[in-house]
Amino acid sequence: MASTYSTDLSIELVATGEKAGLWGAITNTNLQLLQTAASGYVEVTLSSGTTTLSLADGSSSANGKNLYIKLTGTLSGSASLAMPATTSGGNANRVFFVEDGTTRGGAADSYTVTLLTTGQSASTQVPLPEGATALVYSRGSVPATTLGMLQKGMTSVTAASKTTYTAVPGDQIVVDTVANPVTITLPASPAVGDEVTIMDGSASNGFATNNCIIDRNGSNIEGDAVNDALALNNTCVTLIYANAAKGWLYKSTNQ
């Protein structure tokens, strides 16, 4: 029988009596793969569109087998990072860290980075906040990439160049309203427990001069189908999504 390959890391499994004289090289490659999965680090450059990681059979250089993946590059459009759902051995279940080190562009609104398992629909992809580090679980043939936020992101919105921004769950947003009011749009189709933090980072003419508008994006805010406005300088608020009836609630506020 010829070699087969394992699930997940696609390690070469040599059949009894096969690969005479090649066991040393194959074993060393397999050990390198295990080392990569335990402590490997790789940088992956994003630009726009979907970048799919590799779980190539028997390859110790396949970037999807690393434990820690840092995303780099200057985005020219919204981008996605995809983990393969399968290898030649079957379902690929992967647990790994992702750090966002990209530079987000976009004049009207920042470009986004999402994580997915191949075959996953756009509506169920998981957004990675700017500057965040997350622990990610990709479940093979069940297309669902889930993440636990280890370090929340931090993004800046400056009204001199950008007056609108659509938040993603886990965002911490420093808003500068020196020049103009700014509208922060809450995430669409939020899940229970999603959080967004908004703070006044204006050097002058803060929220009292130019308000920060919170667009509810179809969900209630404190049970009401009404947008909200932050109108006090030095305000910092965290909203958490409770349920369809209550919508977003203020988890904390210094207003």
What would your notes on this structure say?
The chain is mainly beta and 255 residues long. The chain folds into two domains: 22-151, no CATH class; 154-255, gp9 (Jelly Rolls, Sandwich). Helices cover 7% and strands 39% of the residues. The protein has one helix and 22 strands. The strands form six sheets. Strands 3-5-9-12-13 form a five-stranded mixed β-sheet, covered by helices on one side. It has a five-stranded mixed β-sheet with strand order 14-16-18-21-22, with no helix packed on it.
Gross geometry: elongated
Number of domains: 2
Terminal CA distance: 70 Å
Mean pLDDT: 90
Radius of gyration: 22 Å
- Which runs of at least 5 residues are low in confidence (pLDDT < 50)? none
**Residue share in helices?**
under 10%
Biggest sheet layout:
5 strands, mixed
Order of helices and strands: EEHEEEEEEEEEEEEEEEEEEEE
Strand arrangement across the biggest beta sheet: 3-5-9-12-13
Topology:
Elements (H helix, E strand, L loop, with lengths): L3 E2 L6 E2 L9 H17 L1 E5 L3 E4 L15 E5 L6 E5 L2 E2 L2 E2 L1 E8 L12 E5 L8 E2 L5 E7 L5 E7 L3 E4 L5 E3 L5 E5 L5 E4 L9 E6 L11 E4 L12 E3 L5 E8 L3 E7 L2
Parallel strand pairs: 3-5, 4-6, 5-9, 6-10, 14-16, 15-17, 16-18, 17-19
Antiparallel strand pairs: 1-2, 7-8, 9-12, 10-11, 12-13, 18-21, 19-20, 21-22
Quickly list its features.
255 residues, Jelly Rolls, five-stranded mixed beta sheet, mainly beta, 22 strands
Summarize the structure.
This protein has 1 helix and 22 strands. The protein has 255 residues and is mainly beta.
